[in-house]
Amino acid sequence: SVHKTEATTIDGTVYPLDAFSLDHRHNLFYFPPGETQVEVSLLSWAAYKGLNEVIYALMGISNQSEQLQDHLDDALFLAHFADHKKTADLLMDFGANPGRKFRSNGLHGAVRRRQIPQIKLYIKDFGVPVDVEDGDSATPVMYAMQLEHPSDLETISLLFSLGADPRLEFGDEGWNYAQYALAMEKGDLAEWLEVKRHEAEAKSKFTARTTSSRESSCTIGRD
């Protein structure tokens, strides 16, 4: 059936937070898996392989349902992850949602493969929140951190310019982006991320101060 799913193995790290664990001292430890087990539908499998004709055939025999939407959205992520841009376009034509919350989505996949036009399209034209989280709470910035240098920094810089928040923290311990980069032994990236975090904090304090001083000046002279 169209909705049947089965496990398949994909080389490398598919979901960013799978690559991190805690050592005995409760410090972040980076140990990326050599392969990832993923539960996929026929549609997702076809998208991962770039089999557009199969996607056409599957969509021809599928009824609109929530389940189909789930499969479309997952398929869009995997099409991007496997670098099949035409397949991603086809899935968008069929109604895939590139900003699906709490799933690895089209924006996450486009970021992971540094597909700049798609990143801009999804955020600017489709209104996908730039900090949208996957099922593990990883953001697009976390997917960009998986890229090689200097693509990682350039892609994160683009996401920050499009409104991503450099101050976000993750997990019970409240790890920030710089700490994840350090665990990955990306010292230069960690340093840059720390600077961006401080800049954002300073800007937010300044904005809060100017807003409150404007509000207090508006109340002066009122009865």
What does this entry show, briefly?
This protein is mainly α and 223 residues long.
Structure description:
- With 223 residues, this protein is mainly α.
- The protein has a single domain, classed as Serine Threonine Protein Phosphatase 5, Tetratricopeptide repeat.
- Helices cover 52% and strands 11% of the residues.
- The chain is built from ten helices and six strands.
- Strands 1-4 form a two-stranded antiparallel sheet. Strands 2-3 form a two-stranded antiparallel sheet. The protein has a two-stranded antiparallel sheet with strand order 5-6.
- A hairpin with a 4-residue loop joins β5 and β6 (175-176).
- α1 packs antiparallel against α2 (52-60) and α3 packs antiparallel against α4.
- The radius of gyration is 20 Å and the shape is globular.
- Residues 204-223 are annotated as: Disordered.
- Residues 207-223 have a biased composition (Polar residues).
- InterPro entries: Ankyrin_rpt-contain_sf (IPR036770).
Tell me the layout of helices and strands:
Blueprint (H helix, E strand, L loop, with lengths): L4 E7 L8 E3 L5 E3 L4 E7 H8 L2 H9 L5 H16 L3 H9 L12 H7 L3 H10 L14 H5 L6 H11 L7 E2 L4 E2 H7 L3 H33 L4
Antiparallel strand pairs: 1-4, 2-3, 5-6
Helix pairs in contact: 1-2, 1-3, 3-4, 3-5, 5-6, 9-10
Keywords:
single chain, two-stranded antiparallel sheet, mainly alpha, Serine Threonine Protein Phosphatase 5, Tetratricopeptide repeat, globular, 6 strands, 223 residues
Low-confidence stretches: none
Provide the CATH topology.
Serine Threonine Protein Phosphatase 5, Tetratricopeptide repeat
Domains, number:
1
State Rg. Answer: 20 Å
Strand order of the largest sheet: 1-4
Provide the succession of SSEs. EEEEHHHHHHHHEEHH
For the secondary structure, the number of strands is: 6
Mean pLDDT score = 93
Percentage of residues in helical conformation: 40-55%
Apparent shape: globular
Secondary structure tally, helices: 10
Within CATH, the superfamily carries the name Ankyrin repeat-containing domain
The CA-CA distance between the termini, in Å, is 72 Å
CATH C-level category: Mainly Alpha
Q: Beta-strand level of the residues, as a percent range?
A: 5-15%
Largest sheet: 2 strands, antiparallel
